[in-house]
Each structure stands twice: as structure tokens, then as C-alpha cells.
Specification:
The protein is an alpha/beta fold. Helix content is 54%, strand content 10%. Helix 1 packs across helix 7.
Length: 237
Amino acid sequence: MKSDEGFTHLYDYIAVAYGFSEMSAVQFPYEMLNVLSDIVPYLPGTSNTDKIQMIYELTQRHSNQVLLALQKIRTQENLFKPKKGKTIFSFIDDRLFLKPPVERLIERICEKISVALPIAFERTKPQHENVLNDQLNALLIAEKDDYKREFPAIKFSFARTIPDHSFPEHDLLIEAKLLKKQTFKASITDQIGADIHKYGTAHKLFILYDPDRKIVDETDFKKDFEKYNGCFIYIIR
């Protein structure tokens, strides 16, 4: 795929087909109520129930056809050639269409900063959290147009720059934490716990810059917070 827009269109197309495949005939009218209310009046027939059932069956045929097409495409891959990223084959292998767009955006952001932040602070470690946030902000602004092209429906922002009342308007809030030598792990734990409740239902990405390895067991630390829906922890050394 040569462009982020093309990648996004492909993702949306397959994700819709996958979403239809997961719906039962009972769920369908409730999940698609807004769309159906625009379509049903213009279809032939007198029974709305029959019309909705007809549309539902159409979506199921569409989902099956998309699945068959993907399976056929998968057989065309030349296994004697090395794998390449951002191809239709890698897209199918990674099952990206099963992931919500906000989770894919989080992965993209984490991939970028995992390389960029250690380079930025290779000579001088940040002494204050504002310095970390400023650098992170600069990195995200530089990539913002690319993110908008690939994830046009998702808004993201730094939690430090938006007032409490606007938090629900954002799909993703990003909060950076700096762990210094004198920082107690319990202090960071308390801060994250308070932020999880303060930010409510928005997706939350907490980026922890931990050059001195204050957090020894990443998996154990993250699982206590990622059990909360929409909460993601990413630790950078």
C-alpha cells in the first residue's frame, strides 16, 4: 500500500465486513438503527421487518465474499520472497482489521517514540516532566498530518493541555510521566490511578520515561492498570 489513505480505506472496508460478520440477526437492527432508518422507507415492500432481514442477509453475503477474497489473495503470496511491511499480505497476517483504530494509533505512536525519545535524550536526560512533554509534543506535531491521514476519525491530545470538561470529546488522551532517580514507584502508581478515574471513559495512553529502570517488572506494573478498559501503559528506557 503506497499511501496512508489507501491503507485506511482498506482497513475501513474490511473492518466493516468483519463487523457485519459478528452481528446476529437480532443485534443488527439495534446496531444499525440510524442507517436503517434512512434506507428502509425507500425499499419495496410493506413489512419493515422483512426489509431489515433482506438488508441483513445482504451484509452477510458481503462479509462472506470479502473473507473469500482475502483467503484467495493470501494464496498469491510468494513464500520464497522476504516479507514486507504495509502490504496486503502483512495486513492479513497481522489481522489489523480486528483492532479498533484507536489501538492502532496507539501502536503507531509508541513505535515512533520508542526510537525518537531515547535519541532526543541520549546526551542529557530531562530533569523536569515539562521537558519530556515538550519533546513528546514536538514529535507528535511532526507526525500529526500522517496520523490524520491514516486515522481521520480519531482526535488525540495531551491531557495537560485540555480542561477537565473537554476530556470526553477526545478518543485518546496522552499523559507523559517522568521517573527520576528520586521518584518513588508508588508516587507514579498513585498519579496514574487518579488520572484513570479523572479522565473517565476516554482512551488513555500513559507514556512512562524510565531511564533509571525504577520499574523492574514491566508486565506486572502494566497489568494493574491495563485491566481498566481503554487504559494503555508504555514504558521507555
